[in-house]
Amino acid sequence: MAPSEAVEAEALQTVHLAAADVFAGVGLSSAVGWNQTADDWALFVAQGEAIGLRTARSELVATAATLPYQGGHAWISMVLVDPAWRHRGLATRLLAQCIASLRARALVPTLDATPAGEAVYRKLGFVRGFGFSRWECEAAAPAPREAGDSRVREATPDDLPDCIALDTQACGLGRASLLASLAGRQGSRAWRIDDAGGRATGFVLAREGRRATQLGPLVAASDAQAIGLLRAALTATPGPVFIDVPDAREALSGWLIAHGFRLQRSFVRMALCPRLPPGLADAPSSLFAVAGPEFG
């Protein structure tokens, strides 16, 4: 970094982002091809803490966000730097501020890292947990319904408490506000599956993204239930579609490949703590798709 660039970087003003900054945040994430929408950015501003760096001309050139969950963890995401401002330590600067803020509130910094990011976070003390992969498809191949699919139905707002309870059980984190926000958006849909007694045992959520519909979280009691839920969601979602599946869910990954999905990229869950709890170290048995690397 040249001396002049170092001076420019030091002159940037750290700011807390507000609703008026959502458009600028979308511009940064869109520039790198991410899937986040204005609703996603508004959620970080409203439920978490979104910070950024501004130039003297009020241009937003870098961002980072944290989102606290019940259970002692908070997600770090949206670490973005304008291409013209990269390699000046801006991401490291904002990441350090996020970590300090979470530690001050006794929250464990947690995130989903790309392979390149994993090396960076390891140096900061983050511990590696389970891996997951993003699968994408322009238009999934039709899949015939099976006998067990009769217990799958589209969810209504009244089903949200059951879905939140299943998500909490699967992830070990309290994310009621997040799920309520995702499910309540225009264009979002959800499906649930019940056992023989009518008790909810799984659900999947579909929400609109900038590039593709994002499926997840997907929680189920078995591979068959997960695939049944996915069949219902894909029938109503012509594409394109993204879904982030734990690598341990091999049967589901194989089903996706057979129905036209291809691997896009991989991630690894990480947390800044001496030892990861079971739900982060290994993918919970009922978790078949995460909400997305920005939300966990």
How many individual helices? Answer: 10
Q: Please state roughly what percent of the residues sit in beta strands, choosing from under 5%, 5-15%, 15-25%, 25-35%, 35-45% or over 45%.
A: 25-35%
Report the end-to-end length measured between terminal Cα atoms.
Answer: 34 Å
- From the 3D coordinates, which CATH architecture of the largest domain would you assign? 3-Layer(aba) Sandwich
Tally of structural domains: 2
The share of residues in helices is: 25-40%
Largest sheet: 13 strands, mixed
The rough form would be described as globular
Q: Would you list the SSEs in sequence order as H and E?
A: HEHHEEEHEHEEHHEEEHEHEHE
Instruction: Tell me the total number of β-strands.
Output: 13
pLDDT < 50 stretches: none
* CATH topology title of the largest domain: Aminopeptidase
Structural class: alpha+beta
Rg over CA atoms, rounded to whole Å, is 19 Å
What's the CATH C level of the largest domain? Alpha Beta
- Taking all residues together, what is the mean pLDDT? 94
Describe this structure in words.
- There is one protein chain.
- The protein has 296 residues and is α+β, with helices and mostly antiparallel strands.
- It is built from ten helices and 13 strands.
- The radius of gyration is 19 Å and the shape is globular.
